[in-house]
Design brief:
The protein is mainly α. The chain contains 8 helices and 2 strands. Helix 4 packs parallel to helix 6 and helix 6 runs antiparallel to helix 7. The protein is elongated and about 60 Å long.
């Protein structure tokens, strides 16, 4: 019991100091750390260590959230509450804001890739939606969104995203093959719906 209590207290103290450290770091430092976490996640993904890859991507997203919660860019605080290095408001520093949003979108996109590999279609779908919020024409996000939509039976949504992919690359063999698969399911779904409506009218 005592060992468990000591371990819990140690974990609490470490977490508290880690949170405080993040809070008082300059946003550029947080951004660089976020990029490093993302690159580490990429390496773990390549070695098929999906669990560690997900943790690294989530760590990168935590850095992004810490940045976006700041009132100013380049602002840091001392442990005594002194404000130093005042800069532009985060929303006003367009270039830096774009870099941060790109990092966030890439992490969401990569997490979607992992969940597709794990056949967790719902999670993959959710992260694709988040990635597409930043760039609705991103091919990788659209492709992964299409795959997850297809597996979830969201045929209409899948068809829309595949049509968009083909508008970007009409000659892509990968997208054309996916389009054929979608259209087969789309026709089956339409046939089932027609039969269902037909039986409803006959029964009435």
């Amino acid at each position: 019991f005592h060992l468990y209590t000591i371990s819990f207290v140690h974990y609490f103290i470490c977490t508290l100091f880690q949170t405080m450290e993040t809070k008082y770091k300059p946003v550029q430092t947080l951004f660089e750390e976020g990029k490093a976490f993302k690159l580490q996640g990429n390496q773990f993904y390549k070695s098929q260590n999906f669990s560690k890859a997900k943790k690294k991507y989530h760590c990168a997203l935590l850095q992004v959230r810490a940045i976006s919660s700041r009132d100013t860019v380049g602002r840091s605080m001392s442990f005594f509450g002194d404000s130093v290095d005042e800069g532009l408001k985060y929303s006003e520093n367009i270039d830096f804001k774009n870099d941060v949003e790109t990092l966030e979108a890439e992490c969401h996109k990569n997490l979607a890739m992992i969940f597709l590999s794990e056949k967790n279609w719902q999670k993959a779908h959710e992260y694709c939606i988040k990635a597409l919020e930043y760039n609705e024409d991103d091919e990788k996000s659209l492709y992964r969104y299409s795959l997850s939509s297809l597996q979830l039976g969201l045929i209409d949504k899948c068809k829309q995203s595949v049509d968009k992919l083909l508008s970007l690359k009409p000659q892509s063999k990968l997208y054309l093959q996916l389009h054929r698969e979608v259209m087969e399911k789309y026709k089956k779904q339409s046939s089932i719906e027609r039969d269902m409506y037909k039986s409803m009218f006959q029964s009435s």
